[in-house]
From TrEMBL:
Intrachain disulfide bonds: 232-241, 271-280
Pfam family, one: EGF
Stretches assigned to the EGF-like domain: 203-242, 244-281
InterPro entries in alphabetical order: C-type_lectin-like, C-type_lectin-like/link_sf, CTDL_fold, EGF, Lectin_gal-bd_dom, Lectin_gal-bd_sf, Notch_Cell-Fate_Det
Top-level lineage group: Eukaryota
GO molecular function, one term: carbohydrate binding
Keyword Translocase: no
Protein name, entry field: NOTCH1
Record keywords: Disulfide bond, EGF-like domain, Repeat, Signal
Signal peptide range in chain numbering: 1-17
Length: 420
């Protein structure tokens, strides 16, 4: 009898010790499981299917650099199987945690809640019980079992997610536009454009948004910050760019020269005796005997100097290009001059002359003279064709719109040559 009692005691103690060992192993395993769930998936960014979290656990998801979280499926419930994800994609039968069988309860907003918390972020962390409430765990067919489900404390969160490349990585935004995700559920990228740039990729030209964005005698341009503005052509000012700038307010003419304005509102100096040059700045007591640098005398000994610009520009730009060189845009007053200069010019190029009929339609004038001695190509004077170009390859003198791009030919006389 004593031997039996002793055996029983030994057996009970053995069972108790064995249970303690099993319990310790469970605690170690449980702790390791929690550590694994809290581990950041930098080296395993991709997808996690049927990850299970208890009600009091902290969910931590961290994707790699340049990646964001996309929640595929989520279900908060007791005895929960994973819900079928969107588009009828199925991600496993849910072997972790919970028994097989029908849900005793389930939160129908599970996916929406987790998407709102994690979608589109590189890192997401939340406690299950903070995001979900047992009172939201519903199964209308099992209402009577709901209280049992709570008391059994087997409510869990099943979670499937993926780490995907950030949608903005391959979404181009021009002109310093910033890509953002406007729909955190579908992860839809969109450009937030800077200044006045528009379009899906901030590359729509604001100057092209309106057929006529600026008044006449002005040009629409894009500022360095991307905004659009109307710049008056040189020589014009005012809100509508229709006011001529009085270039004689500050007299540019030196040595007593008199200032007047030409048809473009540019200054013209009339010099007193013994002075010459664009601004009467050359004393004829020490006259120049050759053309300035880059100018060519045509014909030799005539005192007439010509310069050809390297790049094309609009008519008014050509006027100012020549003025910057103390010269005028070419004025072919005679057929002989037209022929002589034309032989020197590159026949493949096209050039502006100083003639236009902007002041009086069909009465082209130079800045300082008349073109009446020369004939223009018939029927070339359209409504907006006011400036005269020289096209040696075939058209000769012909009207063109003043914004057409042509090279300039500048002319000037050797200072004081006309006074010798």
């Amino acid at each position: 009898m004593k031997l039996q009692v002793l055996c029983v005691i030994v057996f009970v103690c053995g069972v108790s010790c064995m249970n303690q060992n099993i319990f310790r192993k469970y605690l170690v395993s449980r702790q390791q499981s929690l550590l694994e769930r809290h581990h950041k998936h930098d080296k395993d960014s991709g997808s996690k299917e049927n990850d299970v979290f208890d009600d009091d656990e902290v969910v931590t998801i961290t994707c790699g650099e340049g990646e964001v979280i996309r929640v595929v499926n989520a279900n908060y419930g007791s005895q929960a199987k994973p819900r079928k994800p969107r588009k009828n994609r199925y991600h496993g039968k849910g072997s972790k945690g919970g028994k097989s069988g029908k849900d005793l309860c389930s939160d129908p907003q599970s996916l929406v809640k987790v998407e709102g918390e994690c979608n589109g972020k590189q890192t997401c962390e939340f406690t299950v019980s903070d995001l979900f409430d047992e009172d939201d765990c519903i199964n209308e067919e099992e209402l009577e079992a709901r209280s049992w489900s709570k008391s059994s404390n087997d409510i869990q969160l099943w979670l499937d997610y993926q780490c995907i490349p950030h949608p903005c990585l391959n979404f181009y935004c021009a002109h310093e536009g910033i890509c953002v995700l406007v729909d955190m559920i579908d992860l839809t990228p969109q450009c937030n454009c800077m200044n006045e740039w528009t379009g899906a990729h901030c590359d729509d030209n604001p100057c092209e948004a309106d057929a006529n964005p600026c008044p006449q005698k002005s040009t629409c341009s894009i500022n360095s910050d991307g905004s659009a503005s109307c710049c008056c052509d040189d020589g014009y000012t005012g809100d509508q760019c229709d006011v001529l700038v009085d270039a004689c307010t500050v007299n540019p003419c030196q040595n007593g020269g008199q200032c007047s304005l030409d048809s473009q509102g540019l200054p013209v100096c009339t010099c007193v005796s013994n002075f010459d040059g664009m601004f009467c700045d050359v004393n004829c007591d020490w006259p120049m005997t050759t053309c300035p640098t880059d100018f060519t005398e045509i014909p030799a000994g005539s005192g007439n100097c010509y310069y050809t610009c390297d790049t094309e520009t609009g008519w008014l730009g050509a006027v100012f290009e020549c003025r910057a060189r103390d010269a005028y845009l070419w004025e072919p007053n005679t057929q002989t001059e037209l022929t002589d200069v034309g032989q020197v010019l590159d026949g493949a190029d096209r050039f502006w002359t100083g003639a236009s009929d902007q002041t009086a339609e069909n009465a082209p004038t130079f800045e300082l003279g008349s073109l009446s001695a020369l004939s223009l190509t018939a029927d070339s004077n359209g409504v907006n064709s006011d400036c005269v170009a020289y096209e040696p390859a075939g058209n000769g003198l012909i009207y063109r719109t003043c914004h057409t791009q042509r090279k300039c030919v500048c002319e000037k006389q050797i200072p004081c040559s006309s006074q010798n």
